[in-house]
Amino acid sequence: MNQPPIHIAIVGAGPSGCYVADALGRKLPGARIDIFDRLPTPFGLVRGGVAPDHQGTKNIAHQFERTLGKEGVRFLGNIAIGREISCDELRAAYDVLVITIGALEDRRLGIPGENLDAVYGSGQFVAWYNGIPDGRDLDPKLDGKSVAIIGNGNVALDIARLLGKTPDELASSDLCAHARAAFASARIEDIWLIGRRGPLEASFTTAELAEFGELSRVATVVDAAALPDSVPDGMADEQRKLAGKNLEVLRAYAVRGEQSERPLRIHFAFNAAPVAIHGESRARELVLERTRSENGKAVPHGETFTIPADTIISAIGYRSKPLPGLPFDIARGIVANEQGRVEPGVYTAGWCKRGPQGVVPANRADSLAVAELILADLATRQASGKRGGALIDSMLAQRGAQPVDFAGWQKINAVEVAAGQGRPREKLTRLDELLAAAQA
Ligand code: NAP
To answer: Measuring CA to CA, how many Å separate 226 from each of 73, 195, 218, 229, 271?
Structure first.
């Protein structure tokens, strides 16, 4: 007798979810895999996080499209847990539930003045310029001369680079029209990149750091005296290699001088920990405390200084949002799990499993490991008689939900690409526009 199919639900159609679907689909040819996403569009951070001028990184979406288009796989966009469907309902319908919702909430700085106007988290800011519908109306204040970006990771560099590029340099990107207009009318003269530790401890990568050297209107400002002569022996090999290469780029930036004819300066401020934001109703100044790096830690000096900052963006990492009905590790901001196992039949992978670290290939490795765990657990499973997507479809229909399927996404994609007119695409950024395109 034929075995009934295994029903698998994956919540979150970003890279981690797509990689889990692909791995399980290959090993379980008869399985029925439903991939849900709160948005009508798939691909998570590839669409909504990766910088719009890094189109090469976005090419991976073609592979994910093939996964979503496979026999036995369904995309159900515009369906969120806690909104159209609950965790318990998914548990009841599917043999396996995999949570791959990423980390969407900005970490807080925890300093006075953080709630002033013109202070944004990078998650909010990136969602705005990448056209995620619920971030679309942020309308960040970019009306002053000075912007401070807190954090020394690649997200901080993405934001500084996009603000530093000219409209021509952004022409081949898919930066959304509303953000292009806001960037074009901004009159920013100084961008500060603030690292609470030193240049050796920065987590940004060298290729991204080196891009500032290619921007036509940007002068890079680095205090040569703040750069160590060499990388100390005690560092782990990988960090040592990265620090050495970053140091070379920073040294080159320091000798470029202030390039005083250029209208926009990007200042690299190391060993500067944010302690307060000043301003009346909106941010105007950022107060920093000098630190020194000791055994990889930022030790405060007690000496403070102030920089002008009409806009402040904290790019200091993310947390996942707790999902109703699922155990959550509040301290770490992740779904509570043991190497990807949440509870029998429920798993997690990607940033919501291990925190917001690593580029797409690192998440692939993580997803493959979790898929292996799932396969090992399924090997001892009894037939469950669960109904899978058929049960969920009837619930969604009763509730008047409007799921967007793969064909609907392809229609959205076609509309966006056609509107690109020389750009990779012009994104639809409003929920009603996306749903109308999907249903056209
Ligand atoms: P990240 O690399 O973890 O960087 C976060 C930065 O924030 C660190 O410099 C950290 O300093 C700093 N920070 C944390 N709390 C702070 C506080 N209270 N005050 C001041 N500074 C604070 O994170 P990310 O930039 O958000 O990037 C997330 C992941 O996505 C990374 O793996 C990144 O490589 C990846 N990504 C890659 C690309 C790319 O490849 N082009 C682009 C974007 C993102 P400490 O080190 O001192 O904690």
So the answer is: 53, 12, 21, 10, 9
Question: DSSP 3-state assignment of 96?
Answer: strand
Q: How far apart are CA 351 and CA 335, in angstroms?
A: 9
Q: Is 319 near ligand 1, meaning CB less than 6 Å away?
A: no
C-alpha neighbours within 13 Å on the C-beta side of residue 264: 24
Token output for 397? 């229909």
Task: Name residue, tokens 């100084």.
Answer: 190
Tally of CB atoms within 10 A around 308: 16
At 118 the three-state DSSP class reads coil
User: Which pairs from 336-344 meet CB under 8 Å and 24+ separation?
Assistant: 339/369, 339/373, 340/366, 340/369, 340/370, 340/373, 341/373, 341/377, 342/99, 344/377
How many whole angstroms separate alpha carbon 163 and alpha carbon 127? 15
> Residue with structure tokens 């750069």?
227
Q: Please, are residues 88 and 26 in contact by the beta-carbon 8 Å criterion?
A: no
Q: What percent of the chain is modeled with pLDDT above 90?
A: 92
Question: 271 vs 87, 193, 207, 227, CA distance in Å?
Answer: 44, 11, 22, 11
The 32-36 sheet, strands edge to edge: 73-76, 32-36, 7-11, 96-99, 346-348, 341-343
Q: Which residues pair with 298 in a beta bridge?
A: 293
State the DSSP code for 235: S
Choosing from 150, 162, 196 the residue with most ligand 1 atoms within 8 A of its CB, the one to mutate for a pocket test is: 196
What stretch of H or E contains 181? Answer: helix 177-185
Centre of ligand 1 to C-alpha 167, Å, is 26
Nearest of 353, 321, 404 to residue 84 by alpha carbon:
404
Q: Evaluate whether 164 touches 53 at the Cβ level (below 8 Å).
A: no
Question: 160-180: per-residue pLDDT in tens?
Answer: 999 999 999 999 999 999 999
SS3 category, 15: helix
pLDDT digits (tens, 9 = 90+) for 395-404: 999 999 999 9
Q: What's this model's pTM, rounded to 2 decimal places?
A: 0.97
> Is the CB of residue 340 less than 8 Å from the CB of residue 348?
yes
Q: How many CB atoms lie within 10 A of CB 263?
A: 11
Position 258 confidence tier, pLDDT thresholds 50, 70, 90? low
- pLDDT of 18 > 70? The answer is yes
- β-partners of residue 193 are 149, 268
Q: How far apart are CA 334 and CA 284, in angstroms?
A: 34
- From the alpha carbon of 111, which atom of ligand 1 is closest? 18
pLDDT tier, 232 (very low <50, low <70, confident <90, very high otherwise): confident
Tell me which residue has its CA closest to atom 1 in ligand 1. Answer: 153
